[in-house]
Design a protein that fits this description.
By secondary structure, this protein is an alpha/beta fold. Helices cover about 35% and strands about 15% of the residues. It has 18 helices and 15 strands. Strands 2-1-15 form a three-stranded mixed beta sheet. The chain has a three-stranded mixed beta sheet with strand order 3-4-5. A three-stranded mixed beta sheet has the order 6-7-8, with helices on both faces. α2 packs antiparallel against α16. The relative contact order is 0.18. Belongs to the succinylarginine dihydrolase family. Keywords: Arginine metabolism, Hydrolase. Catalyzes the hydrolysis of N(2)-succinylarginine into N(2)-succinylornithine, ammonia and CO(2). InterPro entries: AstB_sf, SuccinylArg_d-Hdrlase_AstB.
Length: about 450
């Protein structure tokens, strides 16, 4: 059955801010305490979505999370009405409060792992929200993410939803940021590549020394089991621990794949040459499989991290070619820009590049690929998706107007003491759930 890949991009939340909460993410740490512009951020993301829609691609929208998370603040001992909880938290622990205001769910590549139906033994599309338990501010997300996924993919005949893995470091799971699928076409069985940073149980495998390995081998193995993946549709590889210690906190900061192409840095994987050979041998398609290995001599790890070359999107166009969707930081970095020009002229399917201004996201450590969750769907499955989360020209205009009405154009540290920010955010999200026909998915709606 014909199939296509839909990118569901996360809408940036109304409390988008720079708190430097993500240890191991160099951009996040470097921009801590800067003023953010939530309105600019959400409009930049929507502009990218609209550009993909205009290219003829099916583009989806993923709603943000409700912030601040008052339930967790109350669990941590802050009492009173909403305004009192915020005031007490601001005075007692402003860093904790900022973590509860985090809008990091905008990076939807971390939201979940998705296995398309050709790869699963039961013929369903499987979803497991990531537990994201390596970072407190992200560990707040899985339950709401699961509710959002069920509101978007609400048909048991086609979609299977799983509870996120145990909230424990042994099963640290960061979703599709460490998962890539290779295939001849999206409707055929593919090879799902799971990349882990360390093993929780096998002490013989190497680990990074400076920064944490957020994805464990055991988590990836569990996802394979939960998703009923065919044996021939899975391969598990270890990320190079040395590059994790240089700021490569996810595989999608050092490698990106699409269809029959893997674009990766020379230092992406542990025992790289063997890892690449294993991928070649495991690939089950009939088309030529392209591995584009970027040498350190042309793009250093530092340049890869600062430009987010590998956090670009690779998308297939209707003519069979591939487009690299890159942040403007790649264009501004001479070494990276020179390599991209060389790559699109070489003998491989990537023959176009388009640069986007995603500065608000980039300064917090997320590029184009971080902003989207890829879901391969056949015609019947696509017809079963909530149609109101699929971008159209009209929906784009509605979302832009919604953001301009509801989002502030500046947020700084003192703004988090303002209880009006909470009411503004909740009002915006309540309106959004109607616009996207999601029903009641947020705690404040379920409790109201």
């Amino acid at each position: 059955m014909p199939a296509l890949e839909v990118n569901f991009d996360g809408l940036v939340g109304p409390t988008h801010n720079y708190a430097g909460l993500s240890y191991g993410n160099v951009a996040s740490l470097n921009n801590a305490a800067s003023f953010s512009n939530p309105q600019e951020a959400v409009l930049q993301g929507l502009e990218k979505m609209k550009a993909m829609h205009d290219k003829g691609l099916t583009q989806g929208v993923f709603a943000p999370h409700a912030r601040p998370d008052l339930n967790i603040l109350r669990r941590l001992g802050f009492s009173g009405n909403d305004a009192q909880v915020i005031n007490k938290a601001f005075n007692a622990d402003p860093i904790l409060l900022r973590a509860c205001y985090s809008a990091s769910a905008m990076w939807t590549a971390n939201a979940a792992t998705v296995s398309p139906s050709p790869d699963t033994t039961d013929g369903k599309v499987h979803f497991t929200a990531a537990n994201l338990n390596n970072k407190f501010h992200r560990s707040l997300e899985p339950a709401t993410t699961t509710r959002l996924l069920k509101a978007m993919f609400n048909n048991q005949n086609h979609f299977a939803h799983h509870t996120h893995l145990p909230d424990q470091g042994f099963f640290g799971d960061e979703g599709a940021a460490n998962h890539t699928r290779f295939c001849d076409s999206h409707g055929e069985q593919g090879l799902e590549m799971f990349v882990f940073g360390a093993s929780a149980f096998n002490s013989h495998l190497p680990k990074p020394v400076k920064f944490p390995a957020r994805q464990t081998l055991e988590a990836s193995e569990a996802i394979c089991r939960l998703h009923n993946l065919k044996d021939t549709s899975q391969i598990l590889l270890q990320q190079n621990p040395d590059v994790i210690d240089q700021g490569v906190f996810h595989n999608d900061v050092i490698a990106v794949g699409n269809a029959n192409v893997l674009l990766c840095h020379q230092q992406a994987f542990l025992n790289q040459q063997q890892a690449l050979q294993d991928i070649r041998e495991a690939y089950i398609g009939n088309k030529q499989f392209y591995i584009i290995e970027v040498p350190t001599s042309k793009v250093s790890i530092q340049d890869a991290v600062s430009s987010y070359l590998f956090n670009s999107q690779l998308v297939s166009l209707s003519d069979g070619s591939m487009l690299l969707v890159a942040p403007k930081e790649c264009q501004r970095n001479s070494a990276v820009n020179d390599y991209i020009e060389e790559m699109i002229m070489a003998d491989n399917p990537i023959n176009q590049v388009r640069f986007f201004d995603l500065r608000q996201s980039m300064q917090n450590g997320g590029g184009p690929a971080c902003l989207r969750l890829r879901v391969a769907l056949n015609e019947q499955e696509l017809a079963a998706v909530n149609p109101d989360v699929i971008l159209t020209d009209t929906k784009y205009t509605q979302l832009c107007n919604w953001a301009q009405r509801n989002y502030r154009d500046q947020l700084g540290a003192k703004d988090f003491a303002d209880p009006a920010l909470l009411s503004e955010s909740y009002q915006a999200l309540d309106e959004l759930t109607q616009l996207l026909n999601l029903g009641s998915v947020y705690d404040f709606q379920l409790e109201g």
